[in-house]
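User: Could you check the structure of this?
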Amino acid sequence: MILTCLRRGLLAGLLAGLLAGLFGFVVAEPILDRAVELESHEHEGEHAGGEEVFSRGEQKAGLFFASALYGTGMGVIFGLVSAYFRGRVSPRSAWLRSLALAGAIFAGAILLPFLKYPPNPPGVGADPETLTARTVAYLAMMALSLLTLFFAWRLARELKDFAAPVRHLLIGAFLLVCWWLLLALMPVFGGTGDAPAELVWSFRLSSLGTQAVLWVGIGCAFGLIGEWAEARVGRTASTVVAEGEPR
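Assistant: Sure, the predicted structure tokens are below.
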């Protein structure tokens, strides 16, 4: 089953990565062009004689390869996590299991860290002295957020004898308190300087949108593949039973 989930995750991640790359190319790249142009004007003459390793055209051409590679990696991780939770959650269709898992990962690994540490365009709020601290804080935020989701799932299993509304309210309250504490207690770093607020937030929302497209794509593709596989197994079983019946 692990290998099956890995194969499904690999394919789902590849498809979702290409879709996210398309979204990034259409929506995010024009905003990134504006940010790069702004940065080049602000630092004009500071790096005379320097050359970019990759031009913007080359970066755009590599966007789909990078997003496909990233999506494939995330899909493999998604497949492993799906294999772990399969049989440990209440019986649902492959479609619902996949969407629920993708939504949980997006909320814990992407959305909550975004609320605390939203990304900035190139050259905006980038203090080299705090780079390591910011990276560690972001990864810690992601890990702790996912950990609270895992504990919420464990709590749901312990409260299985409670009525559904009570169980859902208790789990929701647990998550809200834990995530509020994370948002309040994690360290804060510098702002965005003099960069236009509209440009900064356009970049941030396009980045969040790209991640949303990726995880919606993974959840939908993985679920559809699972539904198709389960339906095929069901048809095969029905055929075997029908052929074994006396005539």
